What does this fold into?
Amino acid sequence: MKLSAIRPILLLICKELAIASLLLLGVSFIVFIILFLSPGDPFSLLLKGQMASDTIGAGTREALGVPTAWYAQYLSWLSNILRGNFGTSIRTGLPVLSEVIRVGINTLYLTIGSMLVTLLLAVPIAILSARRGMTVFNWTSTIFTYIVSALPVFWFGYIVIYISMHQFGLFPLAFGSSSQKIGWLYFMPPVLVLGIGNGTISEVVRYLREEMERVFSEDYIRLARAKGASIWKHSLKEGFLIPITEIIASKIPFILGGAVVVEQVFNWPGMGRMAWQAAQDRDYPLIMGITIVAAIIVRLGSLIKSVVYIIVNPRASQE
Amino acid sequence: MKRYSQYSTNVSDFSDVPFWKKAGTMDLVYVSYGIFIVILVIVSYILGAFNLLPFDPHEINIKLLMAPPKTAGHILGTDFMGRDILSRLIIGIQAYFLPGLLAIAIALVIGTCFGILAGYWGGGFDTAITYINNLLNSFPRLVLILLMVAAFKPDIYYIMVIVGITNVPVVASLIKGKIQFLKQKYFIEAATALGLKNRIIIFKHILWHNCRSVLIIQATLGMAEAILMETSLSYLGFGVQEPIPSWGNMVLSGANYFMQGKFWPSTAPALAILFTIMGFHLLGDGLNNILEMKRSK
Amino acid sequence: MSIAPVLKIENLRTYFYSRSKEAFIRSVDGVNLEIDKGETLGIVGESGSGKSITALSTMGLISAEPGVIIGKIRLTTESVQKDLLQDLNNYVKINTSPGRIMEVYKDNSGWQKYTDRMMRGIRGKEISMIFQNPKVSLNPFITIGKQITESIMLNTPIKNRNEAKDRALYWLEQVKIDSPRLRYNNNPHGLSGGMCQRAMIAMALSSEPSLLVADEPTTGLDATIQSKIVSLLAELKSSVGVTAMLISHDINVIMELSDKVAVMYGGTVLEHGPAKDILTEGSLYKHPYTEALLASIPNEQHIREKGYLQAIKGDVLDTINIPEGCRFHARCNKITDRTREQCEHIEPDLKEVFPGHSVRCWLFVDS
It folds into this structure.
């Protein structure tokens, strides 16, 4: 590709980056406002118990140079965050960022794995029902996706644990301490549970099917049929690639939310479980860090989606 | 040949055909199941509110722990403290019913206002709605709520306010899209030209005639989400706390016994969650297919 | 013995079932057409007269809606002799209660699979099609060069990619696209409508079909581009020598390009014959509808004579409620007292008034 062809694409990607950073700024602001409004801001919580009274606390604030106006507090907090300083966890005293990243990897495995499971389940159903119309297969699969989407993921987790315990003798509590060799066996149940039970399958199927049906009725697909070409090949990009990236990006928040419950059920040492623990302990810096990292993951997914769209679709760079 | 053409003279006008005749069979099944669930929930809520229950949901019966269904008048059995599961299921509706309605009300009212602002006057409002929508979609809902839990220790009503607020942009963008679509059809301009007041155009012609189905659909889907949130949070221990029953904490309290092979105490509320959420989903999607004329083929 | 026509459509009926109106929309209602080798048949008529549906039925491209296709479409070429509609109706089920159709059920996937199997080796290879609105008909995600190359590799003996590319460039030159090497790598989005239409024509011709179906090839283009496309088609017609079915609502296009003409109205053919007989004014036997159509062409002569453009009064036929009698009688200005009774109650047959020229009108039936 020549430079002239790449430049509009690069420009668009820069624009998407700008939008993403603007949104992350908004995210940080919302998080800050919540913490600011909460009874006892992070600062005073850190000093809690060390100061005899409020007035002394306020004095210490001033002496330490901690700003009191909210916007000044926000700016100093934001600059800390931008430098990677998310503070230290109240409970463990460890720096938040490294903690979150340590467990975030586990959550990323879980998220990506369960996304794959969701797609492996949803895509064939969508393709078959898009091509077949209202057949027995279609409505049974539709009912199936509705049931699966309404399944309470924690209870589904219990079933899977029960089965894996009694049928395969696996104890999910042993995660991490088990030998590397059979590690993936412990890995599978939570991934399956979150992949199936995250409550998005019916929407994914519906969206993919509608997009496919729409593309199949496009004029250019009719032309492809008229010249005897494979309609799958011609509909691949618009009917499959773009909707899939679209749906992956838009379902990341749901899967991360579901991860909180699934990690709780399976004792999976990830971000969700840490968030639960932090909420239990009212560990502000930690839950704040987790929220921001989760938002960054969501935005990253959405950025990837936009980039795929721009690269795949030649129209995007000319509009 | 003849047999096809001879029938074709039976023509009824499009508007005469009642909407259920135009609808697909599946959609009608969806909607009737959904309505059945809604009625069941409302009736159970009223029963619970007037305390018309088979047993006292808080009465502990040490003699009858973990009883299987249909023992001694307990239709669904008893839990680990010998409390009647059916009564607790019925009273468990209290945990999400009013909070859920609050979440729906917030989402619909604020969302509609924003949607009208963005669709009718456009410009900056439109950009703002898109931005806020993307902003709120950046948070996994549950993580955001856990942040609120850590910050405020809110009760279920406050949590539902947050759920409602996170749904505002969804409703707003739907209403906005609807208004922009209507604007293309010029009848808003025509109404303005006829000298109708903006207030009347908005409330009567836009909201009542063209947006009510969207709002009804969003209300049902909003209820499904409210139930999901409430049960998830109660399961995690942040929503409704024992001994007040909620379907979520009932699943949790039955969990240990589940692993021992006593499935019932946590399966009963789990199935209640499953069928209720499915009912609201099916109702919403079925109504969407029927009212918005997107018939499934 | 005469050679069998390339395409012979017999009594084609394509009905769509409208669920909300509980009735069939009779888009094509008993069409008989023939296209001989080397000739161009122009099909003309107002929009909604069933021209495009006839073409799509021929290609087996009607799929989505529930409906019925009956009749015979015989394709006879050097390599294929086939009835394109054989057994299609096994995929449609009609539930009736007395006098009323309750539901039309169409096994869409089965139907589609069956037509795809049946049309394998015919679509593209034997019949190619040019659609209207070239910009949306070409795949926006693939360069036009690749699309033409694909068509060549699928439908001609050329299987080598480089050879196919050379061939594609040859065809791009044939349709007079400027700098074909440059355009070869363009996406349809970067080209103008006329350019896209040329590319589509190149694609259709590149597979060297026995029959070319052109469905409104000039619609949706600017007027100047239209005339350029028409002259291109005329040129290609003489140089390549295709057999073609040309569909247009624009009589000028039909006049320019066709050897024979069929005038369609409300799903049937009202007049069928040599172009020079039908499309010149003042010939003796002419359907009143054709006459009205010719009179409504905006040209200098008409305007000078009348001072205004004459439109055909009334609306296009509602193909759900097809009236008794001649389909055109409500709009006809030629009904005489002699024929009124028949015009309003009995549908006339397509009657040969002249060798090779037939008209569906009571005026030309001697009582």
Observations:
- Chain C has a mean pLDDT of 82.
